[in-house]
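Task 17 of the worksheet. Students: predict the tertiary structure of the chain below and write it out as C-alpha cells. Keep your answer in the requested format; marks are given for formatting as well as content.
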Amino acid sequence: MLSDLPSAPTQAHLGTVTFIHWIRFDQALHQLAEVLKPDAPIHSGVWGVPRGGLPLAVALSHHLDLPLLKYPENDAIIVDDIFDSGKTMRTLRDHYPRALFVAWFKRQQPPDAERFPLVYFEMAEPGRWLIFPWEDPAKAHRERREYIRRIQEDPPCSTP
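Model answer:
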C-alpha cells in the first residue's frame, strides 16, 4: 500500500543481505500508524507475531493507543515484520478472518490478494535477506545459511 514511498538511504547492502536501520523502522512506524489510525478504534488491540512482529506491534500499540495483546484476536491488528511466503499470515487468517494484517515489508503479492487484505510499508527486494535492527547480525547470518540449506534440501512448492 505504501510501497511507492521513496527509499531512504539508510540501508547498507552486503551481497544479498540488507541491514535495516532504526531510522527506517521509525519511517515505517509513522506511515503505518497514519494509515491505521482512522480505523484503530474498531480493533481490540495489536498483536505481534513472535519474534519479528513484536517490535513493530509494540510501537504501533503506543501510536494507535491500543493495548498490546498477549494472544491474537479476531478483531485485532496482527503485525509481522515481513510477508514472505505468506504461510504465517495465511495460518493466522484461517483462525482470525476478521483481523487486519500488517507487515513492514512484503516480498510478494499473495495469489489470493482480493481475499487477503494486507497493509504494508514497502516491498522487499527479491533475493535479499533482511536483517532487522533488533536482530543480532551474526545470528541472522547463521539463520540465513540454515534457511538456504533447508531450501536446497526441500524446495518450497509454488502454490500457497
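Marker's comment: The chain has four helices and seven strands. The chain has one domain: 12-153.
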